[in-house]
TrEMBL record:
Keywords recorded for this protein, A-Z: Cell outer membrane, Membrane
Domain OmpA-like: 228-343
Localisation per UniProt entry: Cell outer membrane
Compositional bias ranges of the Basic and acidic residues kind: 329-343
GO terms for cellular component: cell outer membrane
Keyword Membrane annotated: yes
Major site of localization recorded for this protein: membrane
Superkingdom field: Bacteria
Region annotation (Disordered) ranges: 323-343
Keyword hit for Membrane: yes
Protein name (Swiss-Prot/TrEMBL): Outer membrane protein OmpA
PROSITE patterns according to UniProt: OMPA_1, OMPA_2
Pfam assignment, any one: OmpA
Amino acid sequence: MCKSKRKLFSTVLITTVLIFMFLTPVLTFPEDTPNKDVTGSRDHPLISRFPGSYIRFYESKDYDEFTLPLNKLNKAEFGDKYKEFTEKGLRVEGKMTQNFYVVPKKHSTLKIFRNYEQALKGKDFEIIARKSGGVDEGFRYQLYNGIDFKDASETHFEGVWADKESGRYLAAKLSQAEGDVYISLFTAKHGFYGGKWPDGQPAVFQVIIEETNLETDLINVESVMQDINSKGKAAIYGIQFDVDSAEIKEESEPTINKIAELLKENPDLNLNVVGHTDSTGNLDYNIDLSERRAESLVEFLVNNYNIDQNRLNSFGVGPLAPKATNETENGRAKNRRVELVKK
């Protein structure tokens, strides 16, 4: 090749490379990007973030449920008082805030964990469970199951992986007159499926549940039907009875109107109406009372809304299927309910 042709070839090659460099997007990992919080996210007022971290995922719901995965811990890792939670975990309901923080790589998960632990104790939280290292796959699955991880660009991820040995977890409780507050906090080196964080980076998944009184006037047919289709049942609040009575109080009618509307809009829907009580009093009496109350609701729907009797059955289970603890008034209020269970 002559000198002039070699020079021309070199010029074209260099130009092509430069064009390719400018037009080809540079692949970066989250730790290479500016540490900016996801739009609309914020720290929970009860506890601040670890210094230098940023919120990669955030979700807040005014009322939802969450199960702290205490059943995946050894019984020795929390006090005798809480051993009953080792079978199914501790399930709580209320206002729920979820934050997933990315922490600078220079910090160890132990340092992060100890800082959060001391901060919670300083705010009068009781540490009810803790675990350091050896966090197995079952624990991580239960913790992250059902969480819809997505980033600021609305990119959805199938899930996250977390390093077993660096994993540290604690559950804490703050007792308040207006309702207890629970915190589930897990820190470990994390990464997203697909190799987004190939080496892992410290991160904190924080869930805060504030027990609040359920607003019972928000029942709507669409949401109840969604629960029945997805869970096979729907919990109904707002049906009121006098103490130790199966007589339905007048203020219950707006809620019953919605149940009747549900049945009329879905003529093929057949239901078991199941009464529930709290654990106050005698077990046999409560089971009988809950069954009589369920019978009253079925009779009310049949007699006042012309619902076919064959579409409804009534049962009562008393306090045998609680939604929350019976140790607090807020929990007992959640347990006093009627459930519509699809036949």
